[in-house]
């Protein structure tokens, strides 16, 4: 098969990584695959080198950008249409909202020459909780319309699928659930030597209780709740990998609560896989998640996760078995669960071992590639 993947940008995050891993897996099956990706905004880190490392060819389209711009969006539709014309793919598989919009419109504009299989994956969504009610209403109308331009929609978790059905984006029969898949053993480290090395970088010993976090310091991730939670757990040290517009507010709150010495803001790091070895627990305080990849990676590294019940989090974290899931915004509950993990090493080990086993069972690259292949072939009638 000839396959074109389109994604708004190959920035650091689960969506970009999953697309790269999927494309690489499809190449191993003998398919002709490319990834079309847009501009990475200033302040976000790139994963384009990961595509190079995996041997996945990608086409950079400067006009494909996250921000809404009529001129750029029209240009992106034309550019993707040109890719479809030149490559004549069997499959167009779009990812993230902007690439999903421009890519599906490009496919429709090809008329009878459109690819035989058009699929769009929701790696999460921005249809609730991100914007004001007016913009949310507009985005929902757009997605309902665009759903007709795809042969199938894909959700990365049952929870994302349930949201799409609840918001009337498409009927249940049109939405397939294909969870993420990653080469976890290649990405993460949990050995003692790596643990000692990363903790030395922090200036803390093995006895310290270190809590990890990774992502964008933006409102949907509720990073201020991270700080409040750490303040409520005596002696806990927070290591946050990532950056964003709320960084200054995070630093200010840490000063206000007098815990600046216990907060390490790393910014974007290229060796996040090594940092998991340094953590005793992992914390997520988000308002919404698709299928949190950092929670998958943390548990694969035998690090228990304490998280809010946001989006597809329960698909990843088994409450009481691989970590804990609490009500969104409940800082006291987050702190209480972290304290339990801090004080009970046997519990920490039990949760960590269960998480490592289950993540490898649920989130393998081979399973993701097989599920996607099956969907394509059903649509193409092969």
What do these coordinates show?
- The chain has helices at residues 14-28, 48-54, 70-87, 97-109, 133-147, 158-166, 184-187, 192-202, 223-231, 247-256, 272-275, 293-300, 313-316, 331-343, 345-362, 365-380, and strands spanning 2-7, 32-37, 58-60, 91-95, 117-122, 152-155, 175-177, 210-214, 237-241, 263-267, 281-284, 305-308, 323-326.
- With 382 residues, it is α/β, with parallel strands linked by helices.
- The protein folds into 2 domains: 2-181 and 364-380, Rossmann fold (3-Layer(aba) Sandwich), CATH 3.40.50.2000; 184-362, Glycogen Phosphorylase B (Rossmann fold, 3-Layer(aba) Sandwich).
- It has a 7-stranded parallel beta sheet with strand order 3-2-1-4-5-6-7, sandwiched between helices.
- Helix 2 links the parallel strand 2 and strand 3.
- Helix 1 (14-28) crosses helix 16 and helix 9 runs parallel beside helix 10.
- The mean pLDDT is 93.
Major sheet: arrangement of strands: 3-2-1-4-5-6-7
**Radius of gyration based on Cα positions:** 21 Å
Residues in helix, %? 40-55%
Please tally the β strands and state the result. 13
Contiguous runs where pLDDT drops below 50 for at least 5 residues: none
Shape: globular
CATH 4th-level superfamily of the largest domain: Glycogen Phosphorylase B
* Count of domains: 2
CATH class of the largest domain: Alpha Beta
Order of helices and strands: EHEHEHEHEHEHEHHEHEHEHEHEHEHHH
**Largest sheet properties:** 7 strands, parallel
Give the assembly state of these chains: single chain
**Secondary-structure content class:** alpha/beta
- Share of residues in strands: 15-25%
């Amino acid at each position: 098969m000839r396959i074109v993947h389109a994604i708004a940008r190959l920035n650091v995050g689960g969506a970009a990584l999953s697309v790269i891993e999927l494309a690489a897996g499809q190449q191993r099956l003998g398919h002709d695959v490319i990834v079309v990706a847009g501009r990475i905004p200033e302040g976000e880190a790139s994963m384009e080198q990961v595509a190079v490392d995996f041997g996945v060819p990608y086409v950079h389209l400067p006009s494909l950008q996250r921000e809404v711009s009529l001129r750029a969006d029209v240009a992106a539709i034309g550019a993707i249409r040109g890719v479809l014309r030149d490559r004549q793919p069997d499959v167009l598989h779009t990812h993230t909202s902007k690439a999903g919009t421009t890519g599906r419109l490009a496919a429709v504009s090809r008329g009878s020459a459109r690819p035989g299989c058009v699929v769009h994956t929701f790696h999460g969504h921005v249809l609730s909780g991100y914007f004001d009610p007016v913009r949310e209403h507009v985005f929902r109308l757009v997605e309902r319309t665009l759903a007709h331009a795809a042969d199938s929609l894909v959700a990365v978790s049952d929870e994302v699928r349930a949201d799409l059905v609840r918001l009337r984006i498409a009927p249940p029969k049109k939405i397939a659930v294909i969870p993420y898949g990653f080469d976890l053993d290649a990405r993460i480290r949990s050995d003692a030597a790596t643990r000692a090395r990363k903790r030395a970088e922090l200036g803390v010993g093995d006895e310290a209780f270190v809590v990890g976090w990774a992502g964008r310091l933006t409102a949907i991730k509720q990073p201020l709740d991270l700080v409040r939670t750490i303040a409520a757990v005596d002696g806990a040290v927070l290591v946050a990998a990532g950056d964003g517009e709320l960084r200054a507010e995070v630093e200010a709150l840490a000063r206000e609560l007098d815990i600046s010495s216990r907060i390490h803001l790393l910014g974007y790091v290229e060796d996040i896989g090594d940092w998991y070895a340094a953590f005793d627990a992992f914390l997520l305080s988000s308002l919404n998640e698709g299928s949190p990849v950092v929670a998958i990676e943390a548990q694969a590294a035998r690090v228990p996760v304490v998280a809010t019940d946001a989006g597809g989090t329960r698909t990843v974290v088994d409450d009481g078995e691989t970590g804990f899931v609490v009500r969104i915004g409940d800082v006291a509950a987050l702190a209480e669960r972290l304290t339990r993990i801090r004080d009970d090493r046997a519990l920490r080990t039990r949760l960590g071992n269960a998480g490592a086993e289950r993540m490898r069972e649920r989130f393998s690259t081979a399973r993701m590639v097989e599920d996607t292949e099956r969907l394509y072939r059903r649509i193409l009638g092969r």
